Task: inverse folding
């Protein structure tokens, strides 16, 4: 029974890379999967080569299919040799997949046998909640252009700087390519396909450069997504064990901070006064309106003497001013109107980040304020404490004089 289970678990990988390597313009994914499964750099490099060939051929083919000549008379154009040349890299990939299939099968069998025969490492027992939390990072792969952030998190967790660097590069390239696609889509809108001077009718068609730029940018984004996914799969077990250890340490730190806060309540009685805490949490009201949310950062920075928070608040104000100026100036709205949704999304994300940061730093702000005021709710309590202290000091002296 165990042999049947192990054999069935091998089949998906053995079949997946062959199926992917037979898909036109996507055969490079099959070679990357094979190189990752067998840990063979030669097949990984072969996947990179086929990606470059597929990128060139797919973008040219997409532009050719939507060109004016093909749309007017497709049959005569397909008699030419050019469209068929674009599939040469795919045909070569199919032949190469068939050529190395025997060696690949043997290497996969040997790798699976080595994994089964190796002594099993004791994995950290996980609850269902911990299992779900450890897999939340992979939800970012649903957002393909920014999937590199998941690799950044994995690399930071297991302390691998190369993974972090590649994740940041993947994220930056994904955002830049999507932005470039929006710009090119607006610059290359449509072309005149036919014009009838008698009826004065104009027939518009898709600009042939639109599919060219679409395939050229999106295929690169897909390549970065596949590579990031394979790297995350390779480091999944290490990341899971490390993240559980970090989460346990974090929970233990939270318990310690909670105990320390309870001790601080005894040392500073104002931390137990609800009215005092509400008074020193009034900066949270600045977070509710989007326009005034940077004031919360500036308020916390001035109160706690944190100059970085003041600088962040001023920077947010500058961004708000730039966004308002661009969105209300017709000169900018006519030229870069395509950028407005991106600026609006970033504005909302910045607002949410300010709210989250203000709530997260509330406890440290209250502790700093309690230390600054000496733990007294107001000046009256401070005066009373000084009088009581003076009475306690003077009482022994008076007893000594009477004696």
Result:
């Amino acid at each position: 029974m165990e042999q049947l289970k192990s054999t069935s678990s091998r089949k998906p990988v053995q079949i997946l890379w062959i199926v992917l390597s037979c898909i036109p313009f996507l055969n490079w994914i099959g070679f990357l999967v094979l190189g990752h499964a067998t840990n063979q750099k030669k097949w990984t490099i072969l996947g990179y080569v086929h990606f470059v060939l597929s990128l060139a051929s797919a973008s040219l083919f997409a532009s050719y299919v939507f060109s004016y000549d093909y749309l007017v008379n497709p049959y005569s154009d397909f008699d030419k040799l050019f469209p068929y040349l674009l599939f040469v890299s795919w045909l070569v990939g199919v032949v190469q997949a068939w050529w190395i299939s025997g060696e690949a099968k043997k290497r996969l069998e040997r790798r699976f046998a080595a994994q089964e025969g190796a002594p099993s490492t004791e994995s950290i027992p996980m609850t269902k909640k911990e299992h779900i939390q450890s897999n939340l990072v992979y939800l970012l792969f649903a957002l393909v252009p920014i999937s590199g952030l998941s690799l950044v998190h994995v690399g930071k967790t297991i302390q691998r700087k190369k993974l972090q660097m590649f994740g940041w590069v993947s994220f930056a390239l994904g955002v830049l390519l999507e932005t470039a696609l929006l710009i090119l889509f607006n610059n290359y809108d449509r072309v005149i396909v036919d014009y009838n001077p008698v009826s004065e009718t104009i027939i518009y068609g898709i600009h042939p450069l639109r599919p060219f730029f679409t395939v050229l940018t999106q295929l690169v984004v897909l390549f970065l997504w596949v590579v990031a996914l394979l790297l995350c799969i390779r480091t999944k077990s290490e990341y899971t064990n490390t993240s559980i250890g970090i989460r346990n340490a974090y929970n233990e730190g939270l318990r310690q901070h909670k105990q320390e806060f309870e001790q601080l309540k005894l040392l500073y009685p104002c931390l137990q006064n609800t009215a005092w805490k509400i008074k020193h949490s009034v900066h949270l009201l600045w977070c509710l309106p989007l326009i005034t949310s940077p004031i919360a950062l500036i308020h916390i920075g001035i109160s706690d003497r944190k100059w970085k928070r003041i600088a962040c608040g001023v920077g947010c104000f500058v961004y708000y001013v730039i966004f308002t100026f661009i969105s209300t100036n017709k000169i900018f709205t006519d030229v870069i109107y395509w950028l407005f949704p991106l600026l609006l999304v970033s504005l909302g994300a910045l607002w949410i980040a300010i709210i989250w940061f203000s709530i997260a730093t509330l406890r440290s702000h209250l502790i700093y304020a309690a230390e600054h005021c000496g733990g007294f709710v107001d000046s009256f309590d401070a005066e009373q404490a000084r009088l009581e202290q003076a009475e306690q000091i003077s009482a022994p002296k008076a007893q000594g004089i009477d004696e």
